[in-house]
């Protein structure tokens, strides 16, 4: 059962990566003046951006807790820093979505950015590009370079975290720049 859940989480990660690439391409098209795909995306998700950010961060939080509490993978120091950025996002995006408070989105943008930075650093450590710190070796068996999972040849826990942060950032950005609802006046 544990392995099946890991494969499902990894598959969700790959689906999230495909979605992140699509969002990136649409964003780049918007920046170069192609407004059609961006307008389509805005109409598609209008009003649901905070709910989508909540969904992504809730899955990331649940996956994180699954890895440590069910699969018994010991979180390393870098995993804890990523969790510090993820856990509050899942709670605050839910509260913001329930209140339909889009203004909070702009204040949340630094969390997925910081988390993504830690995830990239963790990937560099995990793949031996950067030497891990002594604190990493103390924090978990094998340190921060331990690959607790490696599905589909590349999906590791930091890859999943980076995917979640990228999607959370995209949805929060959409929520923060979406035009306010028009109020009809007599």
Descriptive terms for the model:
single chain; 186 residues; 8 helices; globular
Characterization of this structure:
The chain is an all-alpha fold. The protein contains 8 helices and no strands. The protein has helices spanning about 1-30, 35-45, 50-70, 75-100, 105-110, 110-125, 135-140, 155-175. Helix 4 (about 75-100) runs antiparallel to helix 6 (about 110-125). The chain is globular, with a radius of gyration of 18 Å. The N and C termini lie far apart (about 60 Å). The model has no long low-confidence stretch (mean pLDDT about 95).
Shape: globular
Strand content: under 5%
Quote the distance from N terminus to C terminus. 60 Å
**What fraction, in percent, of the residue positions are helical?**
over 70%
Low-confidence stretches: none
Biggest β-sheet description = none
Q: What is the helix tally?
A: 8
What is the total number of structural domains?
A: 1
Q: What structural category do the secondary elements indicate?
A: mainly alpha
What is the average per-residue confidence, as pLDDT, rounded to a whole number? 94
**Taking Cα atoms only, what radius of gyration do you get, to the nearest Å?**
18 Å
| Number of extended strands | 0
SSE arrangement, N to C? HHHHHHHH
């Amino acid at each position: 059962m544990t392995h099946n859940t890991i494969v499902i989480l990894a598959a969700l990660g790959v689906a999230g990566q495909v979605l992140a690439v699509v969002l990136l391409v649409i964003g780049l098209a918007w920046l170069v003046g192609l407004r059609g795909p961006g307008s389509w995306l805005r109409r598609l998700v209008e009003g649901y951006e905070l709910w989508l950010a909540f969904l992504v961060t809730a899955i990331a939080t649940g996956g994180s807790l699954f890895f440590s509490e069910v699969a018994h993978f010991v979180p390393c120091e870098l995993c804890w820093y990523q969790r510090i950025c993820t856990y509050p996002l899942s709670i605050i995006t839910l509260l913001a979505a329930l209140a339909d408070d889009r203004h909070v989105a702009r204040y949340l943008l630094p969390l997925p950015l910081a988390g993504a930075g830690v995830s990239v650093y963790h990937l560099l450590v995990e793949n031996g590009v950067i030497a891990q710190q002594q604190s990493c070796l103390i924090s978990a068996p094998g340190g921060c370079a331990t690959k607790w999972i490696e599905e589909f040849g590349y999906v590791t826990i930091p890859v999943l975290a980076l995917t979640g942060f990228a999607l959370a950032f995209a949805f929060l950005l959409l929520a923060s720049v979406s035009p306010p609802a028009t109020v009809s006046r007599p």
